Each structure stands twice: as C-alpha cells, then as structure tokens.
Description:
The complex is a heterodimer of chains A (about 170) and B (about 110).
Chain A: H1 2-5, H2 9-31, H3 34-51, H4 61-79, H5 81-92, H6 104-118, H7 121-132, H8 137-144, H9 148-173
Chain B: H1 13-24, H2 28-41, H3 46-78, H4 80-93, H5 99-110
Amino acid sequence: MRSALEGDGDSFGRLVDRYALSARRSARAILQDGDAADDVVQDAMISAWHALPRFDLGRPFRPWLMRIVVNAALDARRRNHVRRAEQVTDMMESPGALPDHLTDATILRVALDRALAALPERQRISVVLFDAEGYGHAEIASILNVPEGTVRSYVFHGRRTLRRALASLKEETK
Amino acid sequence: MSESSPFSAERDEELGALLRDHLTGPNAERFVARLRTEPQRTDRDDSMSILGRWAKPGIAVAGIAAVALLWLGYRSVSEEPSQLAIAPVSEVINVGPNSGELLLATMLEGR
C-alpha cells in the first residue's frame, strides 16, 4: 500500500487486481450499462492513482476507493440520465411474462435486471455493497454520505423488493 | 433469502452471490488487465508538471498585463487632464507672431 502511495505502478496494479471487479459490479449496479460502467471504473482508477499521494494510510483503503468509484458512477448517471433511461426502457417497458424459449439462466438475468432497475438508485447500490461486496452499514454510509440508519433502511427495502421479485420468478418457472 | 429486520447486520449470502454473478459482466480478466495498465500510462506527476509549465508563462503574462494597466492608469490620471487644460492656451499662444493684434482686432469687432 505504501509503495503504491509512493508511485510504484506494480503495487497499484495489485490493488487494481483486488478491487477492480468489485468496482465494476458497483458501477454496473448504478449505471446499468456495462460499457459506461467500465469507462467510469477506468476513470475512477486513474483518479485514485492521482489522489493516492493524499490518501491517509491510517484509514481503510477499500471504502476510500469505492467512494471514488460510486461518486464517479453517480456523476456519470446524472450526466447520461436521458441516454440511460432510453437504454433501460427495453427491459422496463415489457415487465410481463417472460418468453418461453429462454433458458433458466437468461430468465434469471432478465428478472434481476428488471428488479434492479425498479429499485431506487440508493437502495440498489446499498444492497449490492452490503450483500454482494461485504461492506458494513457504516462503511456504506460513509461512501454514500448519508446516515447509517438510512443505509439500513435502503438495504432492508432493497433486499425485500429483490427477494419478492425472485420469489415470483420461482413461482412462474415452476 | 428470508426477510430480516433493518437492524440485522447479517448478510444474505444467496442474494449476494446472485448479484455478484449477475453484475460481474463478461470478459472480466480482460477488463482487469486493461485497468491495470491504464492509470500508469498517465504519469502521476503529469498534472503537476503541466500546471508547472503553465505557471511560469502565466505569471509573466500577468505581470506584463499588470505593468501595462498601471502605466495606462498613470497616464490617464497624470497626463491627459493637463494636456486638455493646456491645449486651448497653447493654441492661442502658438497662432503666430501677430496673435496679440489679431486677438485685439477680434475683440474690437465683437464690441
């Protein structure tokens, strides 16, 4: 960590190896657009590389990096809101029964896409950071700059919506 | 995937695994490899050196502009009013050798 801070590219590369996919998943959860998410993560990593000399070694690195990624993704989402909305409508406009010829994996993917798209942005990223990435409520609160109680509420409601969506999918495919 | 209270800090492992699988996306290794090399293409000192390169000419230009503005300000305050005030007098004085007679004749005609 210290050597990355002092400008050692290989050390920073190892940090990228460790956190890149977590960053990608979080950006994809916010943006729901794979290419845009990849661009955002790349920009965020470059920002982190440049900001690293100012990083306080006494603090945890993972939430610091994730805050950069999440803020970059939220900014990009605000900038591209109209474009993103157009792309998501393909999924959102046809929330009815899924076609019969789809495989179980595809059905699950489409159902998760729909369920995630239906969640408010903050609930979506909170559930992903908590259940998929293993962040604590306090860490997510510091990443999103909201009170910890609000994060608990986001996670609770977001999970409940996702669970119900997946449960109804199971019923449909029985 | 059972319902839990908002106060629970327990993770939903099944939901978490589903989300990880769903959101990781294709070509993960290629993505990580690209990400690994990209930040290092931009030298960390680049932004500071660019600012440094801009700083010297910027300060020089600002200095020249400040001197020019001060000079113009000084000119407008100290020179222009005195020229205006002096101008009519100098015109009268510099009309020619018989300017006094001409002035007198003009005054008598005016009477």
